[in-house]
Design a protein that fits this description.
The complex is a heterodimer of chains A (about 160) and B (about 550).
Chain A lengths: L1 E7 L2 E7 L3 E2 L11 E4 H10 L6 E4 L17 E6 L6 H12 L5 E6 L6 H6 L4 E3 L6 H4 L20 H4 L3
Parallel strand pairs in A: 3-4, 4-5, 5-6, 6-7, 7-8
Antiparallel strand pairs in A: 1-2, 1-8
Chain B lengths: L5 H22 L5 H9 L3 E3 L4 E5 L5 E3 H14 L3 E4 L5 E6 L4 H10 L31 H12 L14 E4 L13 E7 L5 E7 L11 E8 L3 H15 L10 H8 L1 H15 L8 H8 L15 H9 L1 H10 E2 L6 E6 L10 E3 H14 L3 E4 L5 E7 L3 H10 L14 E2 L14 H9 L3 H7 L4 E4 L13 E8 L2 E8 L11 E2 L4 E2 L3 H15 L6 H8 L2 H7 L6
Parallel strand pairs in B: 6-7, 15-16, 16-17
Antiparallel strand pairs in B: 1-2, 2-5, 3-13, 4-5, 4-12, 7-8, 8-9, 10-11, 11-14, 13-14, 17-18, 18-19, 18-20
Classes of the chains: A alpha/beta (about 160), B alpha+beta (about 550).
Chain lengths: ~160, ~550
């Protein structure tokens, strides 16, 4: 994958690319660093095939279908077909809060600077910035506003429980 | 009223700088219009026919006198000297330059205001009624929960790219003056037998091309759980709402296609997962916010004021204004004043900077410096001692704001229409003016309280479906035509009006509207309202009368 911003604890690293590859379809002989579509991955798990530990979730996939299998995964990518389609934010929320997913969570597709702080708050910790955009420029969007009222994945308590107002 | 603390202020200031950077990147071409569009919408900026329009949030319609002066300043400095108040208690400026918007927002931030989420597919300004806190029929001040919900929804990261816009309204009085039933989420706040505050939650209202009133999904939600419940509704909507067709993307369509029972089950299932969560409201937080809405320090006044009574008895014009504009107040000796912004002296919802300043001055002189914006696009001074009403009226007369027509035919709710809006299919203001002009004030008083709503297109910004008489502007081969509905109503017994027949031309419209009000006068029993008469006699008599002596 290209244009990668990763956040670990509070450190940010930016890379032109990494070894991961998104597969559009399922395939029989899986190579290292290949990321299967969620449905194909689930089918392999059901068949008892060795299924790797990485999947990607499409915009209309239900992440709750990973319930029961989530411990097998250490890398999940969520696809944004259009940055104006906000389903991926709820997908991230459900993975982190409902399925208690602890591994890496990456947004890819139409992923742009001005949405990164929101994505981060919903539990994403890495981003594959849209091709053609400069990831160093996009990284300026990670910080976001210093004040948030509601709780979120990254900050479960709402403001009124975090501080004395 | 709510005062910003350091957190509110920091958020708004940082947001201004964030948008300043985004505007600069747009102007340099770094951001495409497609990428910029949702960013500017969520900062209140539309691109209209002639220029950018900026919609500024007036949370639940409450303004201080200083904030009103700030709006007057923006009108003079950045616009053409006036602004337009909307049915959702906001204000719009119509002649804005993109390059000025960061400075406008910075000025707003300096007076504890913003334009965050006044547009876009996100949770919009939370509305309530103009008489919150002073209405005699109120159970609990709805602004307190409107503010709590506003904060929760502001830049809530999961819900900024919803399938479509999302509107929430709260009411907590016998009469619903906030059009709660046409909101995506409508909340009626009440006290149960044990005096515990609970919400009746209704979801899926909205007008536009497929009008629906919202439907009850929960009757007895404990107040502390209101945020988790709204979160559950929004998550279900965000995941399952349609995104393939803008006109089928509101939550009303999701509920209509799932059925309200299946929708309720989805929401309940989601809610059970988050019910005992971080977003449960605490007594401390409720008290903290409630303390911001304490009543002003009212004086002990007699309920009747001799001088005020004398003025009413001796001055017919004042007395006519009092009977329409002066509203009851929970405190003895005080009243609320509704200031009409309507025809013939004004354009519905519009105030010029001088008028804004005058209202701010009156609020400071007599009314604790507080002002409200009503759903009907009028301005309210909520706390005026009766003994000062005559002076208030004299002062309003000087700036053309003493029209005695509140609640009457000419107090129409009107959207800007084709004068400004590029969605509009027909004109609104000039046509509404023509309708208002065929009634003398005596004739209007004879008709009495009535709601007439005129929208310039199917998007229904003037809520024509819930007007007693609703008028919808259409375009028929290049000409403005108007479709008429009768029998709409807002409030607890809200109803969507019914179409009476073929649309009529601009020239015929005033006659047709008058035929309809004449049919009401001919059929009403004693003190029946327009809506009561409609409920008794049905659509037919109105239909029969409407087209009399007009060609269709």
């Amino acid at each position: 994958m290209k244009n990668i911003i990763r956040i670990q604890s509070n450190d940010m690293t930016i890379n032109k690319s990494d070894d991961w590859v998104i597969l559009e379809e399922g395939c029989d002989s899986l190579k290292p660093h290949q990321i299967l579509p969620m449905k194909a991955w689930l089918a392999r798990v059901e068949r008892g095939d060795n299924a790797s530990s990485a999947v990607w979730i499409d915009v209309d996939d239900d992440p709750m279908e990973l319930k029961g299998e989530i411990d097998k995964l250490s890398f999940i990518c969520v696809f944004f077909a259009d940055f104006k389609d906000g389903r991926g934010y709820s997908t991230a929320y459900l993975l982190r809060k409902r399925l208690n997913y602890q591994g890496d969570l990456r947004a890819f597709g139409d992923v742009l600077r001005d949405q990164l702080s929101l994505m981060r708050q919903c539990g994403f910790d890495s981003f594959a910035i849209k091709e053609g955009k400069d990831p160093h420029d996009a990284a300026k969007g990670v910080k976001g506003l210093s004040v948030t009222y509601s709780g979120s994945v990254s900050q479960p308590n709402p403001l009124y429980k975090r501080v004395r107002r | 009223m709510y005062r910003y603390d350091e957190y509110d202020r920091a958020l708004v200031n940082e947001r201004v700088e964030e948008f300043r950077d985004q505007v600069a990147r747009r102007m340099s071409g770094e951001l495409t219009e497609d990428e910029f569009l949702p960013l500017r919408l969520q900062n209140g900026l539309y691109l209209q026919k002639h220029a950018y329009m900026m919609r500024i949030a007036i949370p639940y319609g409450a303004l201080s006198s200083d904030q009103m002066r700030g709006l007057a300043f923006i009108a003079n400095e950045f616009d053409r000297g006036y602004g337009h108040f909307t049915t959702r208690q906001n204000i719009q400026f119509n002649w804005i330059e993109l390059a000025d918007t960061p400075d406008i927002l910075a000025h707003l931030a300096s007076i504890d205001m913003h334009a965050i989420q006044t547009s876009g597919n996100c949770v919009r300004n939370v509305t309530t009624e103009a008489y919150a806190g002073v209405a005699p029929d109120e159970e609990y001040d709805p602004r307190i929960f409107a503010e709590i919900i506003r904060q929760w929804a502001t830049v809530n990261p999961e819900f900024l790219f919803l399938p479509r816009k999302f509107k929430i309204a709260v009411s907590s009085s016998k009469e619903d003056r906030a059009a709660v039933r046409m909101h995506d989420i409508g909340l009626y706040l009440y006290r149960d037998e044990e005096e515990t505050l609970r919400f009746q939650v209704m979801v899926g209202g909205g007008l536009g091309r497929t009008p629906f009133l919202n439907k009850a999904v929960k009757d007895d939600l404990h107040w502390s759980e209101v945020l988790s419940y709204i979160e559950a509704v929004l998550r279900v909507f965000n995941r399952y709402g349609r995104r393939d067709n803008k006109y089928k993307a509101r939550i009303k369509i999701l509920i209509h296609s799932l059925g309200v029972d299946a929708f309720r089950e989805e929401v309940e299932a989601e809610w059970l997962q988050i019910r005992e969560s971080f977003s449960t409201l605490t007594d401390d937080e409720l008290s903290r916010v409630a303390s911001q809405f304490l009543s002003p320090l009212y004086k002990t006044l007699d309920d009747t004021d001799l001088k005020y009574g004398n003025h009413i008895a001796s001055n017919d014009e004042f007395s006519a204004w009092v009977s329409r504009s002066v509203k009851p107040h929970k405190v003895s000796g005080y009243a609320s004043v509704a200031i009409s912004t309507k025809f013939p002296t004004n354009t519905p919802g519009d105030l010029n900077a001088e008028q804004m300043q005058r209202i701010a001055d009156l609020a400071d002189l007599y009314g604790f410096g507080v002002i409200r914006i009503a759903h009907e696009q009028n301005v309210v001074l909520p706390d005026i001692p009766k003994k000062h009403l005559f002076n208030v009226w004299l002062s309003l007369c000087e700036v053309g704001l003493a029209l005695p027509n509140v609640g009457l035919v000419s107090d129409m709710i009107v959207c800007p229409g084709a004068s400004y809006c590029n969605l509009a299919t027909a004109h609104s203001f000039p046509v509404a003016k023509k309708v208002a002009e065929v009634y003398s004030i005596e004739e209007q008083l004879e008709v009495g309280d009535i709601s007439i709503n005129l929208s310039g297109c199917i998007n229904a910004c003037a809520h024509h479906h819930i007007g007693n008489i609703g008028i919808l502007g259409l375009n028929k081969s290049g000409e403005d035509y108007y479709q008429i509905t009768v029998g709409g109503a807002q409030g607890k017994d809200s109803q969507i009006g019914k179409v009476i027949g073929p649309a009529v031309s601009e020239d015929a419209l005033p006659r047709v509207v008058k035929n309809i009000t004449n049919a009401y006068l001919a059929n009403r029993n004693d003190r029946e309202t327009f809506h009561e008469t409609f409920l008794r006699i049905g659509l037919e008599p109105f239909k029969m009368a409407a087209y009399e002596s007009v060609g269709v």
